[in-house]
Structure formats: structure tokens, C-alpha cells
Amino acid sequence: MKKSFYTKISLLLICILPSLAYASFTITPVKLKINKDEKIAALTLKNDSKEVKHFQLTVFKAENEHGKEVLKETKDLTVTPVMFKIAPGKSQLVRIAIKNKMYSVMEDGYRVSVKELPHKINAEGAHVRLVTEFKVPVSIEAAEKDNK
Q1: Which of 48, 76, 107, 148 is the most exposed place for a label (fewest CB within 10 A)?
Q2: Residue-wise burial string across 43-55, b where 16 or more C-beta atoms lie within 10 A, e elsewhere
């Protein structure tokens, strides 16, 4: 009897949790290209929920070590704002700029981590807080040359 009960509860949770885990914000574009001559690009985050959302951004450099991608925090790019909140239905423009003068043209060489921070729950009892994190690929590209 207990085994049947736990099996049913497990199936119920498997069905319900994915619908709760979807992010309630959108990021555009989902892949960012920075022209090395312009040195700046922008992302837009939109809060699609009915509550205030808090975010934190971090820049990582993607390196290949032993066939695996390893992300290391870097200061080659700067992002502003780093931490912010977005009211329901509102958007936030985020600027990403090349900071370091010694960089190379890299395809998908960086990632901007957009992490939704958990909000405080004003209720008693146990709660599960889900934190959504999305890593936006960022590439630095050479300027297009005129073919005249």
C-alpha cells in the first residue's frame, strides 16, 4: 500500500514540477554578437510574471579543457547593470561592452549568465524555491568589410 502511494505521489510530482520550473521572463536576443569596432551590444529582459523579479548577471569566458567546455569568470567584458529588479510586465535593457583591450575575435567565446534570484516567501512551512539561470552565448566578431 505504501509503495503504491509513493509511486502515485512521485508520478504526480513528475507531472507538476516541469510546469512550475519554466522561467517567467524572456531574454532577447538569445545569442549576442559584439562588433569589435563598436565594442558594445545589448540584451533585453522582460518580466512576464505577475510579481517583481530580481536578477544578477555574471560574465564568463568559455575555454576548452580536455574536450569539455569550462566557464571561468572574466573581466574581459563588462555588463551593466549587474543586479536589478524588473516590475511585472516591464523590461530592462542590459549593455555588454568589451572592456579588455587585449581580446581576440572569438565565436561563442563568452557567456553572460542571467540568474533569477529567489524571492522571499512570506508563509510558514517548507517551500521549494526554483532559481532559473540562462547563459547567453556572446561572440566578438570582426567588422564586415565593404566589397567595393
Answers
A1: 148
A2: bebebeeeeebeb
Q: What gap in Å lies between CA 118 and CA 127, rounded to an integer?
A: 12
Question: Helix H segments across 22-57?
Answer: none
pLDDT tens digits along 80-120: 999 999 999 999 999 999 886 666 666 668 999 999 988 77
CB 110 within 8 A of CB 5: no
Distance of alpha carbon 123 from alpha carbon 59, whole angstroms = 34
pTM: 0.73
- Give the DSSP H or E segment for 14: helix 2-21
